[in-house]
Write a structure and sequence with these properties.
alpha/beta, 2,3-Dihydroxybiphenyl 1,2-Dioxygenase, domain 1, 4-stranded mixed sheet, 3 helices, 8 strands, Glyas_Bleomycin-R_OHBP_Dase, dioxygenase, VOC_core
Length: 148
């Protein structure tokens, strides 16, 4: 077997970020909470005395098996305060939605933010899409998209 399993966000406050993704982006609990520590975790992460808490959320549009969004917090974390669309590394999580404007309103109402403007694009093959970059409550970048 070879398949995508999950994406992970390390949160400053896992409980608050989990609630944001459930409220604003229709992710749902599937009973996969975690409270993990031990030698194997220290060895795998390279973090001494690692302790992780959080949850796997089912992504909208999928059943309760996979893929999931894993939101964890460590007892001890390295924090930075800047996320940029053009930063090297994983840049954003994309959600295809029925109504980009309405979903953006839900993101904003749940405490998230907006980057740039909502745009309508027409591709050379005639496909049309609506896009906006947003941010969750911890600044992680989200792309909301709708295709016509």
């Amino acid at each position: 077997m070879f398949r995508f399993a999950h994406a992970n966000i390390i949160a400053k406050d896992a409980a608050k970020l989990i609630d944001f993704y459930k409220t604003a982006l229709q992710c749902k609990s599937i009973g996969e909470t975690r409270d993990i520590q031990g030698d194997w975790l220290d060895q795998m992460t390279g973090v001494p005395n690692a302790h992780i808490v959080g949850e796997h959320l089912c992504l909208p549009g999928y059943d309760d098996k996979h893929p999931t969004l894993e939101i964890f917090s460590y007892d001890s974390m390295v924090t930075t305060n800047h996320h940029a669309v053009n930063q090297c590394g994983i840049a954003h999580l994309a959600f295809e939605v029925d109504d980009v404007e309405q979903t953006l309103k839900q993101v904003l109402a749940a405490g998230g933010g907006q980057l740039g403007e909502l745009v309508h694009a027409t591709y050379a093959d005639g496909r049309k899409a609506t896009f906006v970059y947003a941010a969750d409550i911890e600044g992680n970048i989200l792309e909301l998209q709708s295709w016509n």
